[in-house]
Amino acid sequence: MLGLPPQVTVCLFDLDGVLTDTAAVHMAAWKEMFDAFLRDRGGAPFTAEDYEQYVDGKPRTDGVRDFLASRGITLPEGSPDDPPTASTINGLGNRKNDAVQHRIRTDGVRVFEGSRRYLQAAQQAGLRRAVVSSSANTQEVLEVTGLAQYIELRVDGVTIRTDKLRGKPAPDTFLAAAHQLGVEASQAVVFEDALAGVEAGRAGGFGYVVGVDRVGQAEALRQHGASVVVQDLAELLDGDHR
Ligand SMILES: O=P(O)(O)OC[C@H]1O[C@@H](O)[C@H](O)[C@@H](O)[C@@H]1O
Fold this sequence. Notes:
DNA polymerase, domain 1, 11 helices, 2 domains, alpha/beta, Rossmann fold, binds 6-O-phosphono-beta-D-glucopyranose, 10% strand, 6-stranded parallel sheet
């Protein structure tokens, strides 16, 4: 009924790009910040490919560090309370966070209707439900969209910092959620739109990894660890997934 293997009792949902249409919002905020930074150094602009390969799905400072490394740029780490003007990894991350929060608060957040339907169906079927996101803005997004009512557990960018977890593509955040919901990885399904996310699903030995392709990267999702790829979670309800 839910398009999942029979042993699966726990659903672990990524947030941005899986439940909410916020991957594009993050991408736009990253581009705004990096383009201004690169312009000052005479570098080429930040692209969608840069986002997918180096930033998408990872905790904020990992995204800053990994993208800069791809351009051969090294900056001091700084500290989480650096001002957004600081030329540090944390400073650039804070600058991007100001941009993303401004967009979320001004434009609002769109929920994928297929995902809302899937959450409702999973709840009715008695499956446990967690959100596992690298974003420290997860709670705010779940609350403004009304999705919080479907979610029993949140492992997010704040948890990563306080519990010192490794972010995606390491499997730690998904494993922590499965553990807290009392199951082995083999009994849980990971829903992910980011390459780093499906990679985390594969690395953790999860029972099933659903790749959600919103940007035409189905093949890359499969290569990085998706067991199946859909364009919308409703396809799993309708049973027409490939
Ligand atoms: O900067 P935040 O809100 O803590 O989010 C960190 C990351 O969270 C992930 O969910 C997004 O896919 C990334 O694009 C984002 O950079």
